[in-house]
Design brief:
- The structure is a single chain.
- A 6-stranded parallel sheet has the order 2-1-3-4-5-6, with helices on both faces. It has a 5-stranded mixed beta barrel with strand order 17-18-19-21-20.
- Helix 9 packs parallel to helix 10 (248-256), helix 10 (248-256) packs parallel to helix 12 and helix 13 runs parallel beside helix 14.
- The model has no long low-confidence stretch (mean pLDDT 94).
- Helix 5 (112-120) links the parallel strand 5 (102-104) and strand 6 (125-127).
- It is of the alpha/beta class.
- It is 34% helix and 23% strand.
- Bound molecules: 5'-deoxyadenosine and iron/sulfur cluster.
- 5'-deoxyadenosine is lined by residues 52-53, 165-166, 267, 269, 307, 309, 338, 340-341, 343.
- Keywords: 4Fe-4S, Cytoplasm, Iron, Iron-sulfur, Metal-binding, S-adenosyl-L-methionine, Transferase, tRNA processing.
């Protein structure tokens, strides 16, 4: 048998791309590929791209320029572009960078083996359709290789919300939920292979409405409760959510489903009602705060994470102060904040009142200082507390392991290596800049 071909995938952007990259690697297994960690010895290089903020496409083009040089030494090397830049740019990529052999959008990964074969024959290999069939149904079942303790599982893709700034509804398409039976089977398989924690993924994960094994429609809470019945699955998380899809049962699950971890990423983007309206978020700041109160009533120690955009077109000083005020009111343990970046084809890109770059930078700095302060305070408050830690790998020091706490803080502790993949009780003894130190109980 000939040697396997080597596949190198470079993943940009969100966790869904991380999941998709794994599945692309698996889909190309039957075509004779194994993955490699270095582009230099690869027979195929795939860039799994992100388009959420500006310059993403330009970054991809400059990376492709660099890769072209590799092709000069290795004419058989195939180069592919996948992900949201592939979806948004399509044939333009082949035109601008002729060294590219294959372009595939996020909904067509099940067609990769065919595209790869076409690329090998020197034929055009472009697919940015939104096909009727479910890409996950068609992707080969995961091979039974042993896995690390944590895994992602995409349950829902696409978005129907059309926030005025966002390209996702255009690049990932309309909301599609995978059938619950398939997700249960995939989760059971992951657990059989050593996974103890599963993070359910979706662009709008709490809008999940898949067909249940009983034929009825299941929401995310129902799915989580069913997955929690799997023996050996210790922890469940989900991301990313929209405030308007926080159904009552999902809030309740945070209080009564012990495997659902006390961490919630619930982006609000802005604290100004005027800006929220212009963003087409369809909720007010007060509604968001009231929702947080209800979730915290169900799970008082919940660690809240969020996303913020500053400098949205038309954002005034007062609007920005409203965002600062909302952050003070809510209190975040983790957050991501960005300067608004106009995306071609989105309604906000056409809006008047683009905020000058210096003003946006200044606002971002102030917001990030506040969020960092809150994050540190929340981390410091863990000292003295007892938490569960899922150990993932050896730490830097001899005899040390690192893992994640229930609240997703990185924790290191002296612990025997056979605790890797297990959840142990740990007392937090110290708070360092980006991690906690604990002692086994
Ligand atoms: N500009 C800046 N930030 C954006 N995000 C999405 N689109 C844009 C944009 N055009 C941010 C939002 C979202 C996160 C994934 O990325 O905060 O929640
Ligand atoms: Fe984008 Fe808004 Fe959909 Fe999130 S909810 S993916 S920000 S359109």
């Amino acid at each position: 048998m000939s040697d396997p071909r080597k596949l190198f995938i470079k993943t940009y952007g969100c966790q869904m791309n991380v999941y998709d990259s794994e599945r692309m690697a698996e889909a190309l297994g039957p075509s004779g590929y194994v993955t490699t960690d270095t582009p230099d010895d690869a027979d195929m290089i795939l860039l799994n791209t992100c388009h959420i903020r500006e310059k993403a496409a330009e970054k991809v083009y400059s990376e492709l320029g660099r890769l072209k040089a590799l092709k000069a030494d290795k004419p058989d090397l195939k180069i592919g572009v996948a992900g949201c830049v592939a979806q948004a740019e399509g044939a333009e990529i082949l035109r601008r960078q002729p060294s590219v052999d294959l372009v595939v959008g996020p909904q067509s990964y099940h067609r990769l083996p065919d595209l790869e074969a076409r690329a090998r024959k020197g034929e055009a290999a472009l697919d940015t359709d939104f096909p009727e069939e479910d890409k996950f149904d068609k992707l080969a079942d995961r091979p039974k290789a042993k896995r690390g303790p944590t895994a992602f599982l995409t349950v829902q893709e696409g978005c129907d919300k059309f926030c005025a700034f966002c390209v996702v509804p255009y690049t990932r398409g309309a909301e599609v939920s995978r059938p619950a039976a398939r997700l249960i089977a995939e989760a059971e398989d992951l657990v059989a292979r050593g996974v103890a924690e599963i993070t359910l993924l979706g662009q709008n994960v709490n809008a999940y409405h898949g067909t249940g094994p009983d034929g009825g429609e299941w929401g995310l809470a129902r799915l989580i409760r069913r997955l929690a019945e799997i023996d050996g699955l210790e922890r469940i998380r989900f991301t990313t959510s929209h405030p308007n899809d926080m159904e009552d049962d999902l809030i309740a699950a945070h209080g009564d489903c012990p495997k659902l971890m006390p961490y919630l990423h619930l982006p609000v983007q802005s604290g100004s009602d005027r800006v929220l309206k212009a963003m087409n978020r369809k909720h007010t700041a007060a509604q968001y705060v009231a929702l947080i109160d209800r979730i915290r009533a169900a799970r008082p120690d919940l660690l809240l994470s969020g996303d913020f955009i500053v400098g949205f077109p038309g954002e005034t000083d007062q609007d920005f102060e409203d965002t600062m005020e909302l952050v003070r009111t809510v209190g975040y343990g983790q957050a991501y904040s960005f300067k608004y970046s106009p995306r071609p084809g989105t309604p906000a890109a056409e809006r008047k009142g683009q905020v000058p770059a210096e003003v946006a930078s200044d606002r971002l700095q102030r917001l990030q200082a506040l969020l960092t302060e809150q994050q540190k305070a929340r981390q410091d408050a863990m000292v003295g507390q007892e938490v569960g830690v899922l150990f993932e790998k050896p730490g830097r020091l001899d005899g040390q392991l690192v893992g994640k706490s229930d609240h997703l803080h990185a924790v290191h502790a002296l612990a025997p290596a056979d605790l890797i993949g297990k959840v142990a009780r740990v007392r937090i003894v110290e708070s360092a800049p980006n991690s906690l130190k604990g002692a086994l109980i």
